[in-house]
Amino acid sequence: MSPKFSIHPNIAQAETLSSEFYENPEIFIDCKEKIFAASWQFITHLSTFNDHTIFPFSFLKGYIDEPLLLIKNEDVINCYSNVCTHRAHLVASRPCSINTLRCLYHGRNYNLDGTFKSMPGFEGLQDFPTKKDNLKSIPIFTWNNFVFASLNASIDMTSVLNDIEQRLPSFPFDDLTHDEDSSKSWEINAHWALYCENYLEGFHVPFVHKGLAKDIDVNTYETKLLENGVLQIAECEEPLEILKDPRSPSRNIYGLYYWIFPNIMLNFYSWGLSANIVEPISTQKTRVRFLSFVINEMAQPQEGDATLERVELEDQSVVKSVQKGIKSRYYKRGRYSPLHEKGVHHFHGLLADALNSSVCS
Ligand code: FES
Ligand SMILES: [Fe+2]
């Protein structure tokens, strides 16, 4: 059987992803297991645990919606299912600091390592408790104070993280603090992949971002393909020490824009890091969370023609326009610019490969 989606590996011969991908609700659902359950998701910063040790959250709220919780226990953070193994009530409903997790439905207790502790009314039960009565453990890892979790970790993101460490060996991750005032969440009437595609090319910068185009050198804009990721590099005239790449110190880096398949963007600037998380809601609705982390006393610039918010609203405007066009009976597929759109081509290839694969769980 020929694959439903195929992207020619040679960009000069390739056509873009079929518009059916964005329209068909079954494909949207297929992406849950084949792509998002297999991905690593950005959950939180370690500073979350300054105030509490238990942190419940939903894995991709409104899409996969898997209830999970992070537990910090003796300085180690682990992730577990937040679903009681008795009759599925949620165990923790809000961040807290306690030594025993107690389900409020019928009082089942769990230790902080997720194991079953005790349960009233279960005296005399045979073959009880067993491992099945423990909270299910979920894969997790911490990288430079950021916590990632996955339901079925099979999309490897280490090549992207290694690239960041090689290019930014002195980026002060330990000095980053979450700046709530400049963090923001939007709901956009567009498919999540259209949002990502727009991010993955700088081709549109001179057309869509007139302010940003004055700040960066569009002639040296560069796109590098990584395993399960893309890096875009924008240069400027002024040297910005914090982003100096020791391997090419003469370059004046304005921003390093890393994208991790399928939906995480880590944007490094001289003032800090903007982590953008793209969360599917429906074929026509996407939540985008901009989480701002600033270095020490620095701040995300709020004035001028190239603020993150201004650029974001310009991007949202074109993405919403594409959402209208992608439904057209007259549009099925386009072609790529080999010079400017290799990030989009890479993304489409990853999507097609994932959708053509069978899911393993
Ligand atoms: S569902 Fe949790 S104790 Fe019954
Ligand atoms: Fe843009």
Note down, in words, how this protein is organized.
This protein has 361 residues and is an alpha+beta fold. The protein has two domains: 218 residues, Naphthalene 1,2-dioxygenase Alpha Subunit, Chain A, domain 1, CATH 3.90.380; 103 residues, 3-layer Sandwich (Rieske Iron-sulfur Protein), CATH 2.102.10. The protein is 22% helix and 29% strand. The protein is built from eight helices and 18 strands. Strands 11, 12, 13, 14, 15, 16, 17 and 18 form an eight-stranded antiparallel β-sheet that branches. A four-stranded antiparallel β-sheet has the order 2-3-4-8, with no helix packed on it. The protein has a three-stranded antiparallel β-sheet with strand order 1-10-9, with no helix packed on it. α4 packs across α7. The radius of gyration is 22 Å and the shape is globular. The model has no long low-confidence stretch (mean pLDDT 94). The site of fe (ii) ion (FE2) has 6 residues, from α7.
Structure described in brief:
With 361 residues, the chain is an alpha+beta fold.
